[in-house]
Specification:
Strand order of the largest sheet: 2-3-1-4
Strand content: 5-15%
Length: about 290
Amino acid sequence: MGATLVARSSEARRLFETASEILGYDLLKLCSDGPLEQLSRTEFGQPALFVHSYAAMRQLEIEQPTVWESVSSVAGLSLGEYTAVAVAGGFSFESGVRLVHARGQAMQEASDLIPSGMSSVIGLELEQLEEVCRAATSESATGEFVQVANLLCPGNTAISGHLAALEIAERLSVEAGAMKAIRLQVAGAFHTAIMQPAVAKLKAALAEVEFSPTRVPVVSNVDAAPHTDPDQIRPLLPQQVIEPVRWEQSLRTMIDSGVDRFIEVGTGRVLAGTLKRIQRKLPCENYGDS
């Protein structure tokens, strides 16, 4: 990840080098060469994804200097929201690196406390999946739960919770008619109360960052509403790690505001894939490398 971008972009290389100085390790080498086990850990993966997507956006700005003239709002899925805030001018790149490093460490530590995880469930309506989660929680040990965590698009929702409850929910999902339930390669039950220990640490890190009003609205994962005011954006970011990601609703907010074209910046094709299930006719240009 990032090697192709850096090969053609001196700006991307500079950003990776700046991030490496802040983090204390060679981020580009880790992205390019691994080891995968280290890159897969939340504390390393989050800075890698942030720097890559930010660098891709900077290169897009260089290649298309007028790109911001047609941007009316931005959004990012989970960690991607930090990139969205940063490219919109809410805080500096350097602050973003420090923030996502702190976020990754805090979420990894919270994940290490409790065996937990996430699964993607394909082919169930939201109401069906919520009932599955309730049934799995009831069948689990006292205090254990599983819940909806990422509302991506119709028929594609991620659930999150204690491992035992998650396993039950995977089984019940298939029995209820889901095409499949796929365990995600993440450290723990993101976007649930299991991440509560990370909130205080993230709030402390955010308190050290200088925020500015964003140049365009950032649509928040938490409430699917557009925000430019730092006093609104700052408290929503730590709340995000324990609240479901309202991605489908966020895209609908943008579409309802008049957005008729999307650009997906960075690694992956999540935006393009989910947009097809929400409003297939809208174009989505991918910019970045996998």
